[in-house]
């Protein structure tokens, strides 16, 4: 029972990081899309 709960926690953490990295990618794409034409760097 305890091991099962621990495993579940690991899965939740994994999905959390997966979502986090995906949103980071989307944010970076949006930043590039908006700021690259303005030649800020």
Spans of at least 5 consecutive residues whose pLDDT stays below 50 are: none
Our measurement of the CA-to-CA distance between the termini, rounded to an integer number of angstroms, reads: 54 Å
Overall shape: rod-shaped
How many DSSP E strands? 0
Structural class: mainly alpha
- Strand content is under 5%
Detailed description of the structure:
With 41 residues, this protein is mostly helical. It has 1 helix and no strands. The mean pLDDT is 80.
In short:
With 41 residues, the protein is an all-alpha fold. It is built from 1 helix and no strands.
Describe how the helices and strands are arranged.
Layout (H helix, E strand, L loop, with lengths): L1 H34 L6
Comma- or semicolon-separated keywords:
about 40 residues, rod-shaped, mainly alpha
């Amino acid at each position: 029972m305890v091991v099962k709960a621990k495993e579940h926690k690991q899965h939740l953490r994994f999905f959390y990081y997966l979502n986090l990295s995906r949103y980071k990618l989307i944010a970076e794409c949006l930043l590039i899309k908006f700021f690259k034409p303005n030649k800020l760097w």
